[in-house]
Amino acid sequence: MPTRLDDLDRRLIRALQDDNRLSFAELAEKVGSSAASCMRRVNRLRSEGVIVGDVALIDPKKVGKSLTVIVNVELERERLDLLDEFKRAMRATPEVSQCWMVTGDADFVLVVLVEDVDEFDNFVKTRLYTNPNVRKFRSMIALERTKFDPRIHV
Question: Where in the numbering of this chain does the HTH asnC-type domain appear (predicted)?
Answer without folding.
Answer: 5-66
